[in-house]
Protein: Prefoldin subunit 4
Organism: Helianthus annuus
Amino acid sequence: MQQAGGGSETEVTWEDQQNINKFGRLNNRLHELEDEIKIAKEANENFEDASNELILTDEEVMRFQIGEVFCHVAKDEVEMRIEKMQETTAKHLEKLTDEKESVLVEMAELKKILYGKFKDSINLEED
C-alpha cells in the first residue's frame, strides 16, 4: 500500500496500518466516552435537583420510582437512596473521565508517531 505525500511516496507498513486502526478505535471510544460523560453529568444534576426538592417538602411518605413502578417510600429512605445513586454516578463519572484522559494520552502518542512518518499526507484531526 502506498500513500503520496508532498510529491514523494511513503510506504505504509503493517505496523503503521495497525497504528492507524488503533487511532480510529480510540477516536470512536473517545466519542462514546464523551456521550457517556454527558449522560452521567445529567443524571448527577437530576439527583441533585431531586435531593433539593426533598429538602423543601413536608411529606413523610414520598412516591419513588423503582424501575417502571412508583412506590410509596419513607422520606428518609428516599434521601438515602438518592444519596447512594449520586455516589454511584459520581464514581462512574470519575471512572469515565479517567478513561477519557488515558485515551487522549494514547491518541496524542499515536498522532506524534503517525505525523512523524506521514507528515501532511495523513489527517488525524476532527473537522
